[in-house]
Amino acid sequence: MKSATIQLVDASIQQMITIEEVKNLFKRYQEKNSKTGEQLDWTYDRYTFPYEIEDKITGDKHWIYLNGKEDGYHIIAVGVELEEGQSLIRIVLSAQSTHG
After folding, report:
1. What is the structure's pLDDT at 27?
2. 78 close to 89: Cβ distance less than 8 angstroms
3. Which label site among 13, 15, 43, 92 has the fewest CB atoms less than 10 Å from its CB?
4. Region label for 14, one of left (φ > 0), alpha (ψ between -120 and 50) or beta (otherwise)
5. 34 and 41 in contact (C-beta within 8 Å)?
6. Which residues pair with 64 in a beta bridge?
7. How far is CA 62 from the centre of its chain?
8. What span, in angstroms and rounded, lies between the C-alpha atoms of 35 and 32?
């Protein structure tokens, strides 16, 4: 597994974020790509975001799982943590993930 974090710092537009806000950002991204696809008369959103969003609670942690809808796309887990009063968005790739 590989993971990365995005830290919201004082200079960020917002310093705190919830898992629901992150989920809504993904949904907004999907909606925008869907509208672009309508304009192009093509399933653009299928290729720009080939995932289904699933809520997953493990212990006291709430995660968003991005489950791949296409072959070759695997689970991406996204969570939000609080560290020293700042939000961290943690992104975890499965062992089967590829660079594509």
Report:
1. 95
2. yes
3. 13
4. beta
5. no
6. 55, 78
7. 13
8. 5
Q: Which two tokens stand for residue 91?
A: 């992104």
pTM above 0.70, yes or no: yes
Q: What is the 3-state secondary structure (H, E, C) of the chain?
A: CEEEEEECCCCCCCCCCCHHHHHHHHHHHHHHHHHHHHHHCCCHHHHHCCEEEEEEEECCEEEEEEEECCCCCCCEEEEEEEECCEEEEEEEECCCCCCC
Task: Give the position of tokens 């968005």.
Answer: 89
With pLDDT > 70 as the criterion, what percentage of the chain qualifies?
98
What's the rounded Cα separation, in Å, for the pair 15 and 37? 33
